[in-house]
Amino acid sequence: ERAPFLPDYACAVREVAAKTNAVIVDHFNAWESFEKNAWIPYLLSDAIHPNECGHRLMNKTLLQTLDTWDEKTLTGKLLIPSPPEP
Predict the structure, then answer these.
(1) Dist. CA 68–CA 45, nearest whole Å
(2) 38 dihedral zone (left: phi>0; alpha: psi -120 to 50; beta)
(3) pLDDT digits (tens, 9 = 90+) for 17-76
């Protein structure tokens, strides 16, 4: 099971980023839909370590935040599973 404190930690990080005007790459938010739909195993090697697809999602989240994501590039074409709509 993933750490029960992660939602509170993510919230605190968001608050600090807002107060300091820092850029935040919100990986927790990007992974939330996978968690809600029980698809988290597609992103993890074990309870906390991302696997290949998890790292791809982290990369996509980073590049989207920096406004440099492009689906036409080799990186943009890498498969990341999509959780079903709730």
Answers:
(1) 27
(2) left
(3) 999 999 999 999 999 888 887 888 889 998 889 999 999 999 999 999 999 999 999 888
